[in-house]
Amino acid sequence: MLRWIATRLIRATGWTAVGGIPDVPRAVLIAAPHTSNWDGFWLLVYKISMEADVRFLAKHTLFWWPLGPILIALGALPIDRDDPAAIVSQLIAAFKNEDQLFLALAPEGTRKWRPYWKTGFYRIAEAAGVPIVLAFIDYKTKRMGIGKTLPLGQSEQETLDELRGFYTPLVGARPALQSPIKFPPE
Asked: What pairs with residue 138 in β-bridges?
């Protein structure tokens, strides 16, 4: 029933859903641009319409009753953002322990402008030996979905070049808040 509702909602609002989960058992999906709370809503509608078993992170403070059980049923994993290094380690371990896991992350990390993307998605994929899959939402064309899968073993620079080539033409709900596609200086 939820799939039917999600599919109809996408059509009724003029969006087009494209792509699907690649034929790999585990991957990090990055979702960009992320400039509005609506991004999460629309990508969740996409996930339901495609019946994609994709997990995503949500602030642990959102897991109160009755919202918590709903979020868990939708695939949310509660996280405490006070210790980012611990989150990365836990997610790497989850990939090592699960036969099938698709984890969606927003590398911009927030709906505010930032001077760079967070690197957790890259470090998790690299350490777990899983590909990075490019999920997107484009408010200009009203298209959302899953695009290409990056090959394993690319350098950081090769990955950033591919991310820029894919995401630069896309327009977020609030374009002025789109962060440049680069990693922070070390």
From this structure: 143
Question: Contact at 8 Å (CB) between 124 and 95?
Answer: yes
φ and ψ at residue 172, rounded to 5 degrees: -80, 175
Q: Is the pLDDT of residue 85 over 80?
A: no
Tell me which residue has tokens 């298209």: 143
Cα separation values, 15 from 10, 37, 45, 145, Å: 5, 17, 11, 10
What are residue 136's DSSP bridge partners?
Answer: 32, 145
Closest CA to 40 of 126, 111, 117: 111
Reported as a single tens digit per residue, the pLDDT across 64-77 is 999 999 999 999 99
pLDDT at 10 over 90: yes
**What are the extents of the domains in the chain?**
2-174
pLDDT score of 95: 95
Helices (H), the chain: 2-12, 37-49, 67-74, 84-97, 120-128, 156-167
Cα(163)–Cα(131) distance, integer angstroms: 13
Burial of 65 (0-12, 13-18, 19+ CB in 10 A): exposed
Asked if residue 48 lies in contact with residue 3, where contact means CB atoms within 8 angstroms, the answer is yes
